[in-house]
Structure prediction request, 474 residues.
Amino acid sequence: MLTDEGPRVVSVSQIFERLSAEFRYAALHDPLTGLPNRRQLEESGATSIEGSVDITRIAVLYIDLDGFKAINDTFGHQAGDEILIGFADRLRHLVRPTDLLARLGGDEFAVLLVDVDEAQLLAIADRVVLGASVPFVCDGHLLHVSASVGIAMAGDVAAERELSRLDVLLRHADGAMLKAKQAGKRQVARLDGHGEAAPIVRNALIRRRLPKAFETLSFTLHYQPQMDLSSGDCSAVEALLRWTDPVLGAVSPAEFIPIMELSGDIHRIGQRVINEACAQARVWLDAGTPRRIAVNVSPLQLAARTIVPELVSALHRHAVPAHLIEVEITEGAAITDLPRAIGQLQQLREAGISIALDDYGTGFSSLALLRSLPLTTVKIDKTFVDNIDSSPSDALLVGGIIDTAHAIGLTVTAEGVERQSQLQLLRDLRCDTVQGYLISRPVAPEDLPQRCSVSSSTTLRAVPLDPKGRIESS
Prediction:
């Protein structure tokens, strides 16, 4: 065996002992930063907690870098790695020698502190926030990130039979970190004891389960039919993302989509949805039952300027005609950066893809917005449709939206139709298409009906119209 002093004879057992030690070190440490990894945190953390004299003086910091993904996307992964290495080095000098610092993965770090009081914990957390705010120098560039820090003390959380004390602390600190991000980032947050913990801790658990969902392909697309009111045809559907987790059960998109937007996973899932929707469009086309599929797009996908190449590439990959795909954006997505949104949406229109403005009326709606965006369709939000069969003012409002959209050449879809009386009124108001539970719930592609049939068991109320077909006010 060669050593610094030259060759020497060693036993086979010594070689295996050395290899074993090297493999164990590699198994317990992050290869990029050299910090302990999650496994080492769990092993050493459990020992530290068990040996603690006062359990209430144990705490956890959960640290996530803000703006890290933007640097990765702009300057490349090498710059991102340099920031992670530099930040890890800063953390070593910001925490106490007795604290256990670990990199959990990505741009997430955790610190286990034993024998610490609240004042000390807050002081360390503040130092981490300040330390992250100092620019990093990478290849001659000054790169700026910040840190959101969540804190949890053992006295804040109740023990849980299914989880170790460290896991409970990590989960609460992760939830507190999300609270810090939602409050504006670059700060320290802590969950209070007045009911705040439950939803935020659930969000933290969702966030921790998302990597496994991507790994196991747990996301599926269901499709909700849109019925053409003039023909009864159901040749258009909306693709809706579904996730059922072994631990959490069915998780609502209203829960996991905002978390994906915070973590940056929205780009990965968005690309997957586009590809799967195009693949499904191809299947229906080959079967002789073509359907147009509407795909929801996040404001962050528009902001990243990736939606156009991703969609065009998926259409070419699956040989799908562009008219079989529709992009749905919300008002917030369009208003965040209107000029950029208009440019990208115009490119999609030029490629033959239709554009729908979803949830119309829930944001800063205006006729100017409808005229400025290159739209083909307006979707009236469910909240406006809910009471149109019992509230003349709501019916007048919906009728006005339909007339306005038609006047500028747009088609109209009403969402959330659940009663026969709503359906009949929307037909009288000359709405183009409808969707909702009365027509069909979102279903797997093989369960979609070819033609929509709606039961007529409910008695329809006559709607008084003026000579121009508008609702008469009472």
